[in-house]
Amino acid sequence: xLHSLFxxxxxxxxxxxxxxxxxxxxxxxxFRPSLESLExxxxxxxxxxxxxxxxxxDALVGDGFAQDQAGNTSLRAAIEEGNAAAAGTTVIITINxxxxxxxxGIALPNLxxxxxxxxxxxxTVIERNPAVGEFRIFTINAGATANLIGLEIxxxxxxxGGGEWSSFGGGILNFGTLSLYSVVIHDNVADNSGGxxxxxxxxxxxxxxxxxxxxxxxxxxxxxxxxxxQAVIEDGSDIYVNEAVLGGGLYNFTGAQLTITSGSQLNxxxxxxxxGGIYNLGTLTMSNAILANNETTSGNGAxxxxxxxxxxxxxxxxxxHATGANSKGGGVYVRSGTTTLTTCTISGxxxxxxxxxxxxxxxxxxxxxxxxxxxxxxxxxxxNP
Length: 385
What we know:
This protein has 385 residues and is mainly β. 5% of the residues lie in helices and 38% in strands.
């Protein structure tokens, strides 16, 4: 018995007296199950209820309460408090019923967090007080998000002379991610471009069930919107009675992407030069939409003027008028690039050249393709643009 025990022990002892490790059991440990605490991944949020129309500042920025000196929560105080929150914070601002019109004395602070501002049940108007200065209503910084719901944004003014972007975006200047839901934007003016909204390069804009009207770009493009980034206009949004030099309704910049769909329409917009409804240098996609009653007073393409890529499907292009004495392309003018019209209706468009005839489409030196369209107006390929 002792001999057997000695043999078992000797199998664990090396010749130099060190303990061996049995093959197959190297670093083997007994498993002991345990619970490990996980980091908190809940997105932090701040919730404020605006209960006053006064344009007052936050009494103590950073305290989490957004109250002015009188103990009320103004829109400005809520934005100031939201901007002071930690990065990644979602800021939810609801404007209470009865607040009514918020008349701003100075521009609101730039939004630099993820904001949701909801006035859908309040009939809220956010406007510039014209008696105290000229400024736009909202600016959304790069990396920030703004969801604006049920608001009316009016009387913004982007005046030249205050810096690189001072003359762009009369109502809103967006460098981040902006979504509009049932919003009305009207009577905003930009000295340069983007009377209602300037959507900058790298920015994202979504417009749903919203109206933009009576906005003006004084010397540039996009009476309602200048898009230099990515923009989607959908769910029956209406863009009407806006004015600019180029693109009375919309100006889609080089490299930009613009989608218009779901019953949305551009109606009765005016450009003093080209593109009464839309001036396109980028990529334009339209489907189930309307281009009607737009006008150019001295240029071409009262409905659409395109020098980029345009794909229109099931779009009604009707009663657009290029009224200048030598104007061409009442419906569509394709100066360069490629335009494809599929199952579109082209009717009742006129141009000034040749006494108003040939008002459908002109495409000098460009590619225009029509597929299964209903065309009542002339389509002309003009060697002399």
